[in-house]
């Protein structure tokens, strides 16, 4: 059986299972920090009927646009034990020459962190609940409107089943010159979003402008309208790394006629509060949506 190694364990997070389990338990009870925002969402997750978790994440290292890619591994290793991949579902998604899905290479899968960072949380919640859960990692890169509709059509039957949970792996705004994004809103009007300049500095500190950009995105995602989400991304260029996976889930909710609308947000934070244009930050949010 082919098992994806936990390539970021020991550097991005603890590689010791006992220590990591204890850390995650503490994060579940912690205040709003980067890691506990992720834990906050999983702490609220009802696992009683869950048997499968679709994890949609962006590609951080390779670009492709013809298909979405699923994992070819049989399991993901974590410091708490192996988390099985639903190879049967992956095979069904990839079946046929016109399928909108293909397989990642092992090298691409190993390099990507967006799925691995969720794996320990999924494993721990499943172990605590005494349920057997399989994952379906789905990598998104270039995504035309046509491809998105094909991906949504393939995933829609799974969204309708109570045994399935969909997770989106994403940060929000990556601000700073090192990210190639220095957009700034001087007040409370998105139409004034433009590259930062001291000459057009308004009442907002840079970090307040970033928060305004992010919370505007959160409000749109709460409304559950994919068209408005697409327009927001086009207008602001906000560097939300999982904007395309989020768009897929919004379209799934929209297509399924979700009575609850879009996302409900639990928390928001920034890695730092930028006041100088030479600084940078990454934003983080936690939230969920319920079908029906």
UniProtKB/TrEMBL annotation:
InterPro entries: MEMO1_fam. It comes from the Eukaryota. Pfam families: Memo. Belongs to the MEMO1 family. This is AmmeMemoRadiSam system protein B. It comes from Candidozyma duobushaemuli. The lineage of its organism: Eukaryota, Fungi, Dikarya, Ascomycota, Saccharomycotina.
């Amino acid at each position: 059986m082919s098992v994806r190694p936990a390539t970021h364990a020991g550097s991005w997070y603890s590689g010791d299972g006992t220590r990591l389990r204890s850390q995650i338990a503490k994060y579940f009870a912690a205040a709003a920090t980067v890691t506990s925002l992720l834990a906050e969402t999983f702490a609220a997750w009802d696992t009683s009927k869950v048997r499968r978790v679709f994890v949609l994440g962006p590609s951080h290292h390779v670009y492709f646009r013809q298909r979405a890619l699923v994992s070819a591994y049989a399991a993901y290793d974590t410091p708490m034990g192996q988390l099985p991949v639903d190879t049967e579902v992956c095979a069904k998604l990839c079946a046929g020459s016109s399928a909108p899905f293909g397989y990642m290479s092992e090298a691409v899968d190993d390099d990507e962190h967006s799925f691995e960072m969720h794996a320990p949380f999924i494993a721990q919640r499943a172990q605590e609940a005494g349920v057997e859960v399989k994952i379906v990692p789905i990598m998104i890169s270039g995504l035309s409107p046509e491809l998105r509709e094909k991906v949504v059509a393939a995933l829609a039957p799974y969204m309708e089943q109570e045994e399935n949970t969909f997770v989106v792996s994403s940060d929000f705004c990556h601000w700073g010159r090192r990210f190639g994004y220095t957009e700034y809103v001087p007040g409370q009007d998105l139409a004034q979003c433009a590259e930062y300049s001291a000459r057009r500095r308004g009442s907002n500190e840079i970090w307040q402008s970033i928060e305004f950009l992010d919370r505007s995105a959160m409000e749109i995602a709460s409304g559950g309208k994919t068209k408005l989400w697409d327009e927001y991304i086009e207008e602001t260029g906000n560097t939300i790394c999982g904007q395309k996976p989020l768009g897929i889930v919004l379209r799934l909710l929209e297509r399924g006629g979700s009575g609850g609308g879009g996302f409900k947000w639990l928390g928001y934070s920034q890695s730092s509060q930028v006041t100088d244009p030479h600084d940078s930050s990454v934003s983080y949010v936690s939230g969920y949506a319920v079908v029906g």
